[in-house]
Every structure is written in structure tokens, then in C-alpha cells.
Amino acid sequence: MAKRKRYLTATLPDGTVKTIGPTAMAFTHYWRIVAVLEDDRTDIFWGHAKSLAEARGKRTAAADAAKVRGWRSYAFEIVEVVATPA
Fold first, then answer.
1. For the residues of 7-72, what is the DSSP string, one character each?
2. Contact status, residue 58 vs residue 65, Cβ threshold 8 Å
């Protein structure tokens, strides 16, 4: 039997709403990195994870990326997604 598809919605602290789907994947969390580059531009990286532990693991990758890419600063955020039927 096929898994039911649903929309996953993440609302970030700054009010940004990101909707993923329709998908049958079991994502539970959304993560976002807002990086300030050396020339004062902003770059945003995002993704979704199947668990809070997996999402938290991206924090280490963000710190490594900041060093390698020379980001002036960055903010890392994780929020839980809310599922609604597709």
C-alpha cells in the first residue's frame, strides 16, 4: 500500500513559512543556515531531516562551512514541521 502524501510546513522564528510537499517522506524537522558573507551579502541554506538528532548534526557541518567559506557570521535554526494532508 502506498504511503499517503502530505504537506510539511515549517514556521521559523522570524515568521518565514516554508512548505515542503506533497511528500510521503517522514521528515520531522526543518533546518536553515543564514550566512553573512565577507562582502555583506546574505546566503541561505536549508534542508529537512527525519529526526531532531539528524537536524542537530547539521550544526557541526555549518561551523565547518563557516570556516572553509569564510563567512563573517551565521545563524543556524531548527524547527519542527507540521503535517497536513495533501
1. EEEEE-TTS-EEEEEEE-S---EEEEEEEE-TTS-EEEEEEEESSHHHHHHHHHHHHHHHHHHT-S
2. no
Q: What pLDDT is stored for residue 19 in this prediction?
A: 94
The whole-model pTM stands at 0.86
The arithmetic mean of pLDDT across residues 63-86, rounded, is 94
Beta-carbon contacts of 77 under 8 Å, excluding residues fewer than 6 positions away, are 12, 13, 31, 32, 33, 34
3-state SS class at 76:
strand
Burial class, 55, CB count within 10 angstroms (exposed 0-12 / middle 13-18 / buried 19+): buried
Gyration radius of the chain's alpha carbons: 15
C-alpha cell at 47: 534542508
Entry field: residues in the chain? 86
